[in-house]
Amino acid sequence: MDAVEALLEIAELLERERASRYRAKAFRQAASVLGGLPEDVVRDPARLRAQKGIGDSTFQVIRQAQEGRAPDYLVELRGEVEPQRVSALRALLRGDLHSHTDWSDGTTPISAMTGAARALGHEYVAVTDHSPRLRVAHGLSAERLREQIPQVRAASGDGLAVLAGIEVDILEDGALDQVPELLSELDIVVASVHSKLRMDAAPMTRRMIAAVSDPHVNVLGHCTGRLVQGERGTRPASAFDARAVFAACAEHGVAVEINSRPERQDPPDELIAIALEQGCLFSIDSDAHAPGQLSLLDHGAARAEAAGVPPERIVTTWGLERLRAWAG
Q1: Please, what's the b/e burial string for 45-63 (b: 16 or more CB within 10 A of its CB; e: otherwise)?
Q2: Each residue's pLDDT tens digit, 253-267
Q3: DSSP letters along 126-169, please?
Q4: Mean pLDDT of the chain
Q5: Is the residue at 50 inside a domain?
Q6: How far is CA 154 from CA 26, 42, 314, 319, in A?
């Protein structure tokens, strides 16, 4: 087995299961180091182990792969990862409008995320790093976003369109956390609430309606902000008038995100039903913060299919030309 491929597969499996980002990053770093070494160093165990970026665990994986077998840790991870039922809807998805890179709180560069999107057969992927108010996630100032946009678009090619975007914070008054002129330059704007999640229902409703009424917004991200499992613990859903918010989404052509992260399962099933009744569009997104998490679309597709969401109302089943026309 190729050792670099083994290291990268381990990283992807760890990422998909939302393991510690440092564990996954260590295997990606080892793969990068190994890929750049001359053959004589690769074949010399002592010199190989002395390389910065190759630790005990990654060295063992490399040596076992060099022996021509699947490394023990890889076999163990393959057995631990529960296979997700692949829904018929998953096969219809053509891209992903919500992903993060190491420009904000993702773990890898743009190139790694786009490479993983190509491997999954995506037609398009949007890079939507955070906006400046979310300092804990190293959100992008206007200057940094201007610097990022051409680099994102330059990553397009080999059958993948890479869309310049942002996950912009919805501020307490419903304003968006980025200058409007810069939002106008982007291909995709995902608007999400990340602060004051426990505010009263009435002001939260006004806040969200103001945001989705902004002509720059394309997608309402993880609308309740809830967490139902995972290492971050649990968090209750925000309170708001779902019918009013989703009616505003439908009026303004904003897609309600079905967030594919298992720890979110957002919106809850009952809110997906309300969004359907209100005539909303939907976007099934991974909210990936690492390459291996792009495959979490399996979860979102299965939830949408179980909820009876028609594929034609899911913008991520649309081809690139139609998607761009909708996004404006």
Answers
A1: eeebeebeebeeebbebbe
A2: 999 999 999 999 999
A3: EE-PBPTT-GGGTPPPHHHHHHHHHHHHHT-BTTBEEEEEEEEE
A4: 96
A5: yes
A6: 27, 33, 27, 20
Domain finish residue from 52, 80, 108: 80
Those residues whose C-beta lies under 8 Å from the C-beta of residue 35, and which sit 6 or more positions away, are 4
CATH of the domain at 70: 1.10.150.110
255 within domain boundaries: yes
Closest CA to 131 of 149, 114, 145: 145
217 and 274 in a common domain: yes
pTM of this prediction? Answer: 0.91
Q: Note the pLDDT tens digit of each residue in 78-115.
A: 987 666 667 899 999 999 999 999 999 999 999 999 99
At residue 314, the 3 state secondary structure works out as: strand
Domain of 61, in residue numbers: 3-80
For residue 166, give both structure tokens.
Answer: 């942002």
Alpha-carbon distance values, 127 to 22, 228, 281 (Å)? 22, 25, 21
Q: Residue 169: beta bridge partners?
A: 192
